[in-house]
Design brief:
It contains 11 helices and 12 strands. The protein is of the alpha/beta class and about 290 residues long. The protein has 2 domains: about 210 residues, Rossmann fold (3-Layer(aba) Sandwich); about 60 residues, Alpha-Beta Plaits, CATH 3.30.70. A hairpin with a 2-residue loop joins β10 and β11. The strands form 3 sheets. The protein has a 6-stranded mixed beta sheet with strand order 4-5-6-3-7-8, sandwiched between helices. A 4-stranded antiparallel beta sheet has the order 10-11-9-12. The longest helix is centred in the middle third of the chain and has 17 residues. The two termini are about 20 Å apart.
Length: about 290
């Protein structure tokens, strides 16, 4: 699909992907990549300039009234009256559905603040309430825009568990985010976009495997004697940034053992160790940095 704004700005440029029932798809991209515009178009709140968009075999704009009861929408921010209390908001939203989900306040850790006005909730509590409101209608498709933004560690874990439960229930979850760790943890498939265009698509494992390289990347105290380590390993060693190193050699078990032994002899702690395979963050940064 293509989406253009007045003035000729192209927010989505020929983007095409699918998401299935019982699948969590993460839509990744830097700020301004077109993620929110894509989600708004799928939800039927924005018409595509060209191309075909279908959600549950319905046109989101033409069939909006039929589609709305079957989807859940979690906005990135706002959308809730600032004086309303969580228990009141859920009761209001539940009234729109024949068989609303129950127990969401407890499930999302909001029971203790059930009667606290929205404006007095923490950012993480507001996010969890927004998620609860998106799920109260038992949606077949859930659109979650930055669901973990501003959420603490415990809240993130709750949200991950809820997303996992949605998957098991057969709900299709489209997760728009720029938080790569979250995508790697919860997504079955990842769609990476920038400037409104598709850069890559696949499972996290597929994307990381496709980007394998002949290096060993590891963390250690800053300022290692890279020349001495390179001489011991027989391969070039660079400090990419303070405390993060790269060995320019294929990651054989023997070479990894030499590296750990060299550090152990000097009583130097070994941090994260990645042999060959890049992280999703590495893949994302490489792909987006290649864009004009």
């Amino acid at each position: 699909m293509v989406v253009r704004y007045p003035g000729g700005v192209t927010a989505v440029d020929g983007l095409s992907f699918t998401a299935e029932r019982g699948e969590v798809v993460a839509l990744l991209g830097p700020n301004g990549a077109g993620k929110t515009t894509t989600v708004e178009t799928l939800e039927g709140y924005r018409s595509p300039t060209s191309g075909t968009v279908r959600v549950l075999d319905l046109d989101p704009v033409r069939d909006h009234a039929r589609l709305t009861p079957r989807i859940g929408v979690m906005l990135q921010k706002g959308g809730v009256y600032p004086g309303i209390r969580p228990v009141e908001a859920l009761r209001l939203f539940a009234a729109f559905y024949e068989s609303p989900e129950e127990g969401l306040l407890d499930r999302l850790g909001l029971t203790a603040v059930a009667r606290t006005p929205w404006r007095r909730l923490s950012g993480g509590e507001q996010q969890r309430l927004s998620l609860a409101l998106a799920l109260v209608g038992r949606p077949e498709v859930a659109f979650l825009d930055e669901p973990t933004a501003g959420v603490d560690v415990a809240g993130r874990q709750v949200i991950r568990e809820v997303i996992g439960e949605l998957r098991e229930r057969g709900t299709c979850v489209l997760l728009a985010t720029h938080e790569l760790d979250e995508a790697e943890r919860v997504a079955d498939r990842v769609v990476i976009v920038d400037h409104g265009r598709l850069l890559a698509e696949g499972t996290p494992a597929e994307l990381m495997s496709a980007a394998e390289r002949a290096t060993i990347d590891f963390g250690a105290p800053p300022g290692l004697d890279c020349a001495a380590l390179a001489a011991a390993l027989g391969a070039a060693v660079t400090e990419a940034r303070p405390g993060q190193y790269s060995v320019a050699a294929s990651p054989s078990p023997a070479l990894v053992a030499q590296l750990t032994a060299w550090l152990a002899e000097r009583d130097l702690a070994l941090g994260d160790l990645r042999a060959g395979r890049q992280s999703l963050e590495d893949v994302f940064l490489r792909l987006t940095s290649e864009q004009p």
